[in-house]
Structure prediction request, 140 residues.
Amino acid sequence: MKTMRIGSLFFILVLLCGAAYSQAPTITFNVPLQLNDLNQEVDGVGVTCLAYDGGGTMVGFGQMILENIPENGDLNKTITVVATESQGKDITTATRYSCSFKLEINGSAVTPEINPNRPIECQAKEGTLLRSEVTGTITW
Prediction:
């Protein structure tokens, strides 16, 4: 079993919902990440944001992947994710969002979670926060 330790991980989501109407409406999410002591096997960090309407239907999707992880394993950066409309849906009906992050290890995405039954385990240092998903409401 490979073990990867995340020394200090804070996944904080700040939602900027200035729906930029150019050709198609979008929702921009600014997601500050602070990751410390990432194992050298980690070759990327991805953030995915989904927008849902009041009935729970996904109406928008966006993803950003960072592939240049510093050699020291520390990443302190705000990632901008732009969600666009799902085909045939109206993103302006979005009332909720969900943003999550994954680690890429040798090109495969791994969801960070504390689970001894998975081949890769992520742990936060005592007194720190491990949060791989954040949800909330969208206000237009």
